[in-house]
């Protein structure tokens, strides 16, 4: 793999920051965009910009065809069974909120339980807190080890017939831990629970096949897969999606409308009210095509080489304590430094051209 050539695909990486070459290490927050994705967005607005599903003119037909072919690309990327199991949303956060607001409100009652883990992002905590407060349900949290792994025995002990939904992250955004999702899904199904997987950090690192995982829902965002911001995906098993009420009301999610009653559209349109982010969906498809040209195993091996190097160098830095040392993780390194505020570290690194996250990766010089 020619890393130098790969970097040249991303025009933003050629610039300087504070007079220093840009080093971008904030991919867990959002990834940069390759030229092919940028060109796709420009082409859409320059050549076929039109609304979809409702026009009989040529531009609408072209935009609709690209939008729906993008859905098929996402279906294949996730290993879903049908295009109609792919719902376009604004991102992972909206996908999780959609499930909480539709499946959750329909099925949860007082005394039921929702199980999450201590690794979850806010977007996979707050919607369930809100739902539990509304329904009188109980939110349970599975603990993690000092290394950042879910304690599987404790996770399984928390599962019981009262557990209605399990929401768990595939890859931790803060620690990089890769959860044993398939095993956790199986255990949850054994007690009759439905499982939602937050895949926001996983899709850019792992081969994801939702049928192999057997999860009921899977969510991810385009912007963490080299695609545009403001667009995401919810995969759901067809039977479950059909049983859920619409998330929002508006155009395209209806079949017939009268002032007395409305009937709802078929999947996936039942959950896609209003004019969607058409360019974002087409840009996501371009990002997936770009990503799939690379060997995932080679990319992962290269990432592991970098994270191993960073970990060993950080261990040599006085006052540095690593957080999250799971043996099964992606390329995220988290740490704290004694008596140094992370914002101060971030500011210093920024002036050296290094764009880092709130969880900061540094090279000990």
Any overview of this molecule?
- By secondary structure, the chain is of the alpha/beta class.
- The chain has two domains: 3-28 and 295-355, Aspartate Aminotransferase, domain 1, CATH 3.90.1150; 42-292, Type I PLP-dependent aspartate aminotransferase-like (Major domain) (Aspartate Aminotransferase, domain 2, 3-Layer(aba) Sandwich).
- 38% of the residues lie in helices and 16% in strands.
- The protein has twelve helices and 15 strands.
- The protein has helices at 3-7, 35-48, 58-78, 92-107, 126-135, 152-158, 181-190, 210-213, 238-243, 278-292, 296-315, 342-350; strands spanning 16-17, 20-21, 23-24, 86-89, 113-117, 138-142, 163-169, 194-198, 217-221, 232-236, 254-257, 262-264, 320-323, 334-337, 354-355.
- The chain has a seven-stranded mixed sheet, with helices on both faces. It has a two-stranded antiparallel ribbon with strand order 1-2.
- Strand 1 (16-17) and strand 2 (20-21) form a beta hairpin.
- The radius of gyration is 22 Å and the shape is globular.
- The relative contact order is 0.16.
Please report the distance between the alpha carbons of the first and last residues.
27 Å
- Strand segment tally: 15
The CATH architecture name of the largest domain reads 3-Layer(aba) Sandwich
Structural class, by secondary structure, is: alpha/beta
Output the number of helix runs. 12
Q: Main β-sheet: number of strands, strand sense, barrel status?
A: 7 strands, mixed
Identify the quaternary structure here: single chain
Q: What integer is the average pLDDT? A: 93
Uncertain segments: 359-365
Strand order of the largest sheet: 4-10-9-8-7-5-6
Which percent bin holds the helix content? 25-40%
Tell me what portion of residues adopts beta-strand conformation.
15-25%
When the domains are counted, the total is: 2
The whole-angstrom Rg is: 22 Å
> Which H/E pattern describes the elements?
HEEEHHEHEHEHEHEHEEHEEHHEEHE
Shape by Cα distribution: globular
CATH top-level class of the largest domain: Alpha Beta
Going by CATH, what is the homologous superfamily of the largest domain?
Answer: Type I PLP-dependent aspartate aminotransferase-like (Major domain)
CATH topology of the largest domain: Aspartate Aminotransferase, domain 2
């Amino acid at each position: 793999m020619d890393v130098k050539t790969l970097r040249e695909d991303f025009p933003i990486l050629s610039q300087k920051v504070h007079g220093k070459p840009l080093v971008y290490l904030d991919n867990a927050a959002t990834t940069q965009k390759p030229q092919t994705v940028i060109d796709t967005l420009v082409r859409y607005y320059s050549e076929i910009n039109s609304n979809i599903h409702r026009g009989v003119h040529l531009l609408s037909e072209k935009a609709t065809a690209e939008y729906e072919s993008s859905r098929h690309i996402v279906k294949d990327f996730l290993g879903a069974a049908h295009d109609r199991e792919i719902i376009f949303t604004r991102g992972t956060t909206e996908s999780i909120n959609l499930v909480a607001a539709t499946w959750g409100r329909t099925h949860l009652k007082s005394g039921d339980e929702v199980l999450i883990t201590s690794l979850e992002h806010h977007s996979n905590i707050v919607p369930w807190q809100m739902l539990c407060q509304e329904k009188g349900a109980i939110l349970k949290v599975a603990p993690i080890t000092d290394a950042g792994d879910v304690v599987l025995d404790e996770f399984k002990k928390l599962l019981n017939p009262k557990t209605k939904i399990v929401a768990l992250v595939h890859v931790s955004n803060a620690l990089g831990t890769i959860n044993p999702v398939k095993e956790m899904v199986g255990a949850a199904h054994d007690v009759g629970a439905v499982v939602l997987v937050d895949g926001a950090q996983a899709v850019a690192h792992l081969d994801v096949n939702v049928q192999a995982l057997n999860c009921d829902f899977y969510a991810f965002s385009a912007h963490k897969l080299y695609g545009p911001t403001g667009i995401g995906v919810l995969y759901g098993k067809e039977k479950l999606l059909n049983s859920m009420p619409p998330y929002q009301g508006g155009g395209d999610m209806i079949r017939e409308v009268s002032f007395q009653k409305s009937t709802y559209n078929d999947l996936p349109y039942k959950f896609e009210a209003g004019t969607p982010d058409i360019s974002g969906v087409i840009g996501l498809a371009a990002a997936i095509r770009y990503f799939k040209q690379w060997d995932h195993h080679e990319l992962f091996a290269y990432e592991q080489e970098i994270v191993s190097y960073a970990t060993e160098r950080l261990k040599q830095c006085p006052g540095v304590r690593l957080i999250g040392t799971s043996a099964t993780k992606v390329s995220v390194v988290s740490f704290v430094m004694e008596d140094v505020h992370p914002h101060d570290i971030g500011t210093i690194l920024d002036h050296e051209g290094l764009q880092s996250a709130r969880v900061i990766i540094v090279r000990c010089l």
